[in-house]
Structure formats: structure tokens, C-alpha cells
Amino acid sequence: MRVLFLMIFGISLFADIYATFDVFPKRSANLAFSSSGIVEKVNVDIGSRVKKGDVLAKLKNDEIKALVEMAKAKLQKAQTALKYAKREYERQTKVKHLLDASVYDKVENAYESALVNYNEAKANLAYKKELLEKTYLKAPFDGIIYAKMVEAGDVVSGAMIRTILKLESTTKRELHIYFDQKYHTKVKVGDKFIYKIDGETQTKTATITKIYPNSDIKSRKMTAVADVQGETVGLFGEGYIKDED
């Protein structure tokens, strides 16, 4: 089969390197909520195309929204208190030499206490906003949903993270190219890979962008990677790596 394939391409058996390949997505991700709750809405289905930042699903979060509003009010109150405490502290500092030490210390302590309260309120609001943000599952990159394991009403747990959606890049693909380890010194980044998808007649060309440094201990094959566009994930085929030497 190897000789026949190379003869079809019209090349010398000794000039180029036979290889097989599988098609993988350029990027893929298993998506899950990192917090616990009840799924309120799922905005996507298998085959849905999404953009980075799109909300794919959300948990019920009315209580957390209320906590965020309370934290905002607390921060506003602390900010106002700090404003007046700072103004009084700065005013008293200018006449510090005329004041009794205990009076000035009281003003200074009030300012420092107001500053602490403000910083705590600010940190509390940031924390509550972070909790709210975790109730939304967003797409980490542009892509297409290829698996869905969740419906509205499902319960998820942040303590036992479970994949609920799987996302892969829309058209960007990688060919994982497998060649005999005896050619590990010949194959280089930038080499051309001439290939055919199994069952197709069209010959295509890709450029090797990466070579893994290790050989598979069972198959004795090395793996190279070439970027392509639009191929269907999971397809396979064979081809040859052009030996430019």
C-alpha cells in the first residue's frame, strides 16, 4: 500500500517520507461551571456557532445579584464616610501643632478606620461580583459546540466539576502526522505535507508547524503537526512529507 500510494503521487520511495494523519480541531475545550447551583438557561445546542465571550449557559443568580447590590450600597456609604474623615484629618493636620495630642489622635484614628472600612467594602464588592460572574458560562474562544450534556433545571456542583459543553474551533484544524521514527532527523518545521483524506481523490498541501520531540514507544512513530482549514474533525488519511534535503 505504501509503495502504491507513493507511485500514485509520482515520487521516489527514497525521496519522500510516507505518513498517516488524523484531523483534530486547532482548539478544543471542555466547559463547566466552577460554582454550584441550578441551571436556569442554556443558550446553545449541538452545532451552535459562538463568539468569544458569548454566554452559553447561566445559573439562577437572583440572590447573588441582591448581594452585589447590597455590597455596592455598602461601598458607597464607606466611600462617603472616608471622604469626610479624610477632609477632617487633612484640616486638623494643618493645625496639629495647636491641638491636644489626644484630639488629633482621635481624628487620625477615625480616618484610618474609615480607610479600612472602605477597602473592606471595595474587596467585598469585588468578591460578590466574582461570585456573580461564575454563574455565567462563557465561550473562551470563537467556535462551535459539538457536545451538550446539560439542560435547564440541572444541578451542578463546584465541588464536583462536570463538563456540560464541549467547544472546538470553527474551521481551524490540525493534522497530526505520524511518520517512522527513523526519519526524525529529516523532518523539519516548514516541510510540506502532501495528503489525501481517506475516501477522497483531491490532493492537498499543508506546512508542518510543529514536531513533537518524543517517539511513541509502542508504534515507534514520531508526530508532526500541520495547520489546515475546514477539514472535518475525526477524518484520517495518508500522504508524504517532502524531503527538501
Oligomer: single chain
**CATH topology of the largest domain, which one?**
Elongation Factor Tu (Ef-tu), domain 3
* SSE order, one letter for each helix or strand: HEEEEEHHEEEEEEEEE
Query: Which percent range fits the helix content?
Result: 25-40%
| Derived structural class | alpha+beta
What summary fits the major beta sheet?
6 strands, antiparallel, barrel
Strand arrangement, major sheet:
1-10-13-12-11-14
- Classified in CATH, the superfamily of the largest domain is Efflux pump adaptor protein, beta barrel domain
Whole-number total of structural domains: 3
Compute the separation of the termini in Å: 25 Å
The CATH C-level class name of the largest domain: Mainly Beta
Which residues sit in consecutive blocks of at least 5 with pLDDT less than 50? 1-14
* Mean pLDDT figure: 92
Radius of gyration over alpha carbons?
31 Å
The number of helical elements comes to: 3
Q: Rough shape?
A: elongated
Query: Strand portion, in percent?
Result: 25-35%
- How many strands? 14
CATH architecture of the largest domain: Beta Barrel
